[in-house]
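Components:
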Amino acid sequence: MAIMGDTLAAATAVGGQYRQPILVAAIEITAREGWSAVTMARLAERIGISRQTVYNEVGSKTALAEAMVAHELDRFLALVGGAFDRHPDDLPGAVYDAVRGVLDLAADNVLLRAVVSATHGGDAELLPLLTTRADTLITEATAILAERVRSHRPGVSAEQIDVAVDVLVRAVLSHVMQPSDTPARTADRLAWLAGRVLDDGSSGVPLRYGGR
Amino acid sequence: MAIMGDTLAAATAVGGQYRQPILVAAIEITAREGWSAVTMARLAERIGISRQTVYNEVGSKTALAEAMVAHELDRFLALVGGAFDRHPDDLPGAVYDAVRGVLDLAADNVLLRAVVSATHGGDAELLPLLTTRADTLITEATAILAERVRSHRPGVSAEQIDVAVDVLVRAVLSHVMQPSDTPARTADRLAWLAGRVLDDGSSGVPLRYGGR
DNA sequence: GACTTGACAAACTCTACGATTCTGTAAATC
DNA sequence: GATTTACAGAATCGTAGAGTTTGTCAAGTC
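Structure:
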């Protein structure tokens, strides 16, 4: 799986010149006034195009919702990928950056939280549409994370990595919904845990927990 | 209903003779037809008492909801306590039993899942009332678990235990909402992880993951 | 003394219905 | 290509009236 929005952007950036502005406007309105406040007419008016053009670009309102969710999910996953790119030789560092990034992003991102909320069983009242995509959030995130971790820890068994990654992903999602500390401290703790669980014996990682 | 609710009846049995039947009936109706199907008149009729007696026992419908949630939460926490009682010298074993128990219980327990769902941000459409209690689910569960783990691992730092327990609790809650495997296998993996993270160096716990 | 009965106001839910808005599609126009 | 206009069907909104339910009385019964 390629990094950043490349492959994923292919899913969102394809389309006419108005697709991106429409998505951005739709996300903005949803975040501030809720999904129900998003109407095709309003999007058209705000961007300065005709309603018909909106339909030509996004197809239907359901498709628009899907695209919005995909767009947010891309940011989410791109962030994780970026963190691992920045720390090719430092797994705890990568985990710290990834967790911190996701938590910070989620803090002021209504839509992302709605997606996570939906993943975690909630109704969210605002997007019963994202079920298709949201069902696979844990699966997708786990998959790309496991892939990245595997390259950091070639000596650790796949099963072991799967366990650690599954727990890491679910813990982060849970902290998005119910934070119990600052993003920085949560990231610190999870990074420590990842280092400890996925220690391959070669590094000099101290097993004591220590604040960053 | 595998395990009867009398385990910690002490916490809930306070009150008149009708309190328990009322709670049981309310839980039963909620599980099958939803919270809106629970009316004071219906509870009275089903038990064979007057509506006024129901009010005398539980006070109000909101109080009834609170009592129901408390009742389910007690089962939940008692299960964890029991698992640790059964394995005083085996932390992974205790974690396995606790996780397995919670996951099995949650599988056929609508109300418990509603509580967890609420904790994890969702609305659940059926109990917007449990916010008071549900907010503290993670906190409470983490607290009693940490306490238990501390007695198993006197040599491990409190901070270290807090991190492991927080992650464990959140992972379990997440698996209640979105299982990715059987309760047995999930419990197995989390027990392994707990053993690994909380290894105090004294045990001969193998660091390889192995099926149970 | 504990429980029941009947009565009651206030709040809430259910239903129905017309007005309004929105979606989605099509054709004509620039 | 994009826009405008037009339109049918669906969804939403606001309203108003009927019916339930809640929560609290006080009087009655075992």
